[in-house]
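In the laboratory, one determines a bound structure by crystallizing the protein with its ligand and collecting diffraction data. In a computational setting the workflow is compressed into a single prediction: the sequence and the ligand go in, and a structural description comes out. We illustrate the idea with flavin mononucleotide.
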Amino acid sequence: MKYSHLLEPGKIGNVAVRNRMVMPGMVTNTTGHSNPDEAAWYAARAKGGFGLVISEYNCVTMEGIAYPGEVLISEEEIPGYRLVTSAVHETEGAKIFMQIHHAGRQSFGFTLGTGLVGEAPSAIPCTNARQLVHEMSTDEVWTLIDKFGRAGKIARDGGFDGCELHFGHGYLGAEFMSSYINKRTDEFGGTLENRARFACECIKAIKKYAGEDFPVICRVSGDELVPEGRRVGETGMICMLMEEAGLDGLNVSIGTYANLTETSAPGFRPAGFNLDAAYEIKKVVNIPVMSVGRYNDPSVAELAITQGKCDYVLMGRQSIADPEFPNKVASNRCEEIIPCIGCSTRCGANAFDMHPDHPGVSCTFNPFSGYENYLQIKPAEQPKNVVVVGGGFAGMEAAWVAAACGHKVTLFEKADRLGGQANVAMMPPYKSDIARVIAAYTALCHKYGVEIHMNTEADKNSILELNPDVLFLTTGGIPIAPNFENEGIPVVQSWDVLQGKVVAGEHPLIIGGGLVGLETAEYLISQLRPTDIVEMNEDCSWGSSEGERLHLQKEFKAHDVTCYTGHKVKRFTMDGAVCENKDGEAALSGYDQIILALGSRPYNPLGEDFADADIKVHVIGDAGQKGGAFRYGIDDAAWLAANL
Ligand SMILES: Cc1cc2nc3c(=O)[nH]c(=O)nc-3n(C[C@H](O)[C@H](O)[C@H](O)COP(=O)(O)O)c2cc1C
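The predicted complex, in structure-token form:
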């Protein structure tokens, strides 16, 4: 497949864009000023081939700031902006637009912390922020429009090639557009034309201050997915008015703060799930239209443009997972693309604790992302002999990174396939992108010349024969199998069910409400096997993101899966389990199989053999004390292997 549409140059206003792959605005969680880390972050995406990168949101007033790290647009910021824009422009042909923003009623009080009150078209608090907001007077609206205009000029002076108004996701511009939160009776409320006026006047103001030739695009939510919110037809009408006002392009997203789980959708949403909204809008305007939503596969992106449903494809989390996505597409190396699986584990707001001294956005499967100035693949001064035992994610990451730095790397895997526990993790519904990650890591191991021994259980002698300087023990974990008293019900491991090694019963009972247990239940739903879950804690562990939690809870409700939380198993019976709970004892019956999903314990059979060896030994991933191959193992592997 040639991806000729994705690679075709385009134009936004009169700015040439070298291809159709765009990185949308995404907060990087750095300091609140443009800085060398941000410059390196954006430059990496430009180098990686994105035709256009859009900055994270920058605010026009303090009242409109959405999170503490958001930059307030001012002339003092111009040197910082220039640092970022010139870093991007070092890559020939790369373009960068500034995202200009005001959070409206979605300004968070904790963010403001200054006694400032969020301002909005009408005094209706945000469903999340739950704070009183100030209804702007007509004069205040006109003053704010002027500030948007001046912000555009600052963007231009800062070296940006254009700007994007962030009028999507329920922020101020969207609030003016939507009658459910705009109850005004002046020229900014009421009719659709009046509700579009704020946006149209902002466009005109930017053109006035920054120049007619300075491209202005606008991010909108095609469908806001809230009661009485805008649907795609009405949004399209407003887009037509914005085009008349001089708009140069549209970025069609989805949702508001009331449903952020759709805005950055979890893995169960397929690539391009929001494309039809872009298409409906494209039908009514004559300016370029961009589509966003889980694009992680070049063929889906190519198809969207080939079908004429959009002109550009935005890749948010995919550009975090793999900044080199466009270059890999262009040079026919798609098998090396590290796909975004939509887990939001390290790019989500709850993920900034991995390296507290540098709490930037990153990716579980690409720890280099967001750490461009700190974690790099550089040719090793003294190439070493590296042995890796265990070809799961942590082992594969250590292997390819060390090999890419020029070390000689040998990897042993006792199974007939690489991936380790990822081979289990990829089996439940909507997790097949994990298989693509295994394939990408495998391709990277091959590319950098890792010598791989499959079906080979390494032992002390075979390792010593290789005379390694560095040894990575990444032998993973084994499932916990407690020895409960059992009156006769068959007991199996969730890993074996998920891997197709044992057939699930007609009505099994899952023990363990961690993610594996929950995803096993989802797998059983897809196998038409009704099930229930026993969890000793007061709640289950509902996955890596709010979106995943909501999805699983909805599925369980629809398929009558009961989670018996606060239930501690005492023994298994002929047809279920007796559990201890706050009321005493409960007998759960009517089942024909127990499926254990109680986590794993480290498996490190070679640790003792090398405890005193004159070799640098790293025990990481599930084999080590920290555990969590996905959360810690890959990250540890990258940092260690890049710094041998
Ligand atoms: C860490 C993170 C930060 C984000 N920050 C912004 C932002 O500053 N401005 C914006 O318009 N959207 C923001 N978004 C939304 C993304 O631009 C994008 O629309 C969303 O992630 C869906 O695209 P994807 O499925 O390709 O990731 C952010 C998303 C993430 C994951």
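The longest strand covers residues 52-59. Keep in mind that any predicted model is a hypothesis to be tested, not a measurement.
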